[in-house]
């Protein structure tokens, strides 16, 4: 049976299987969801068995367990290791969702739910393409699956897991569907990723909240101080001011900048889609360079003092921020993490106490387009989307991709099917049914090509 | 009966009465406490009647009702109007309280609870001094009470109430116990107060929370932007940068600066008490000048992005701050409010949308020490505390004090008995029982002196 026909006949089952995963709120950032993590892992184990794996099991780690499954065709055949993650981001702010984040809805040809794309929907593409090639006897190589439950919190346990299970995870290439394309009509494969470093900053002023009338003007306010410190991290040219921050940043080669300049990109539409009147970034670089090949600094969260209704006059004791840098290949996240901690401590005024806690991090990654598996993926996209995909660097981070390379010695091909409009990590995350179908086709084609 | 003896015999009843008020969480900032506001007003009505008022009633306003009570001695006698407020600040952060904020405890000679000082405890001093002078037949002037329920949210309804009830509230002087002294052994009367202006700032970047990997570096982050704007409000010399902000600020006269310099003040102990290693404020002024005679700018609260456990990488859509300025006499809060809104709008970059909402405000105040009622208060303090109180300006704001002057044409004497260590507006608010007793004595003496 042709893959298009197979999808048609089985789509309602595919969606029911996906929805059964989405309904489990496997939010790794929140400890109250521990049971959901187990339930979600177990559901994947069942689904991978049903899809055609010889065996599938839950494997413990220092944190949430991982799901491992495999289909062995021949000891002489090459092996593809498919990585995905079953955890999702928190759904807050809940009031902005048009439908419940953990009760998937199909509207306007899209699935709406937390995890619809990232990464339950994309992982389901891999599972269903696998099911088809197994069922049709098209699979000529071994396939292994490893699905983790801590990607959204920086995969704190994966590193040790990879080291412990190097033999089990042995493969020729890793396949990951967790990135996005330039557009529904602009298929692309990700050949570069940014790294990440993340910190929490705690600023303590007085030892208790003070009356801003009695103390205001004489005692430093930790929120004012935190704001001043954060304001210093980026200068007027949009450059990060941390000393030695750019030391290892490779300047984007002229050829690549030229290629980026030729990517069809409508800055006006980009601004309209996110509702801003102007863009802001590092001087001397285009928007597409800024969000993929250049590092960035963002305050991801800030809080302190009175944040309830109405007005409370207070000079608070504490202020907090969660901040992160996106890094580019060659920037070591541990080096950057230390540079940042040192920098913040160096600009911390004596009238407050400042504590900077590194949270997690990961390196950037580059995939050579000469890799046979990359070329198989390219053919898969070409077949499914009707045009050759562009090779582009993206701004997101999958820190573990460089861990795969360093620990397992395996290159990764990023066959991601997301779109910017999928709103991953945001309210109203969604995934196009049309892309979902094409994704399955593309991965089926990858398997066929990779075996040649 | 002597007042000391009277207090001794009745103290357990006084405390039970005070505790019955404290147990009602009359938090004006939170709408879910509407019923508590009514209950607290009603409790005060009963207590003032029991203390000796001829009549007491609940009077409606545009917001929370007010309690009015009066004792008419003679139409020819002067009248003292006693103002207090029955509302309290929110008790957050709750986890820092050693005992429940709304379940008063007596430990180490102090009452511990929200409102123990501000203003239930201090208002109770007035009520019990009144009870004594009535019972002992010492009262030679008329007394009126007006207790409002919106002081902690800026008394939004009081202005209209004063205009409507000018005749009813007619008096020769207003007496308020809602300020603090320099120390338990350093009695003082407040002769000046700072004004206040308060705003909420909302900064909107993209129309939804974005993935900081896909957009970071290319799209302005509203938290970073808010921090940069707030950091600009105070310069390196601790001066507020809002254009024309200092236009109406009267430089503190040399004689007053000299008096302030002679107030016994241990800066080291001050820093130790609030747990800071250094102080920060406007260049060229001392700590006591900075927190009483000079304006200030504080961020009272800030929030935006992900503030939960763990780390979420997000480029948020919104960031918020609650900010306030303490003002000095002659600075008009409405003028300052407009200057601030204009300033923030003028520095708001084009890549975000900024909305500044004025919340409330009030003028500063100065009380002449030649006022007979001031001198009666001075004698009251001298009798109760064994030394003449210092006349000092304080940094807090009671915006309605200048409204009393402007609308009712009446000067106010601020007989406040608080201490910095009372931690008003903070966790573990408390009030010394010793001061409570001395306060009653001082006010009794005021009544005796004022009649002369």
From TrEMBL, chains A, B:
UniProt-listed InterPro entries: Cyt/Met_Dipeptidase (IPR051458), Peptidase_M20 (IPR002933), Peptidase_M20_dimer (IPR011650)
Peptidase M20 dimerisation domain sequence ranges: 191-351
Alphabetical keyword list: Hydrolase, Metal-binding, Protease
Cell cycle listed as a keyword: no
Pfam families, sorted: M20_dimer, Peptidase_M20
CDD domains for the chain: M20_dipept_like
Molecular function, one GO term: peptidase activity
GO BP: proteolysis
Keyword Metal-binding: yes
Signal peptide, first to last residue: none
Record protein name field: Dipeptidase
Organism of provenance: Phocaeicola coprocola
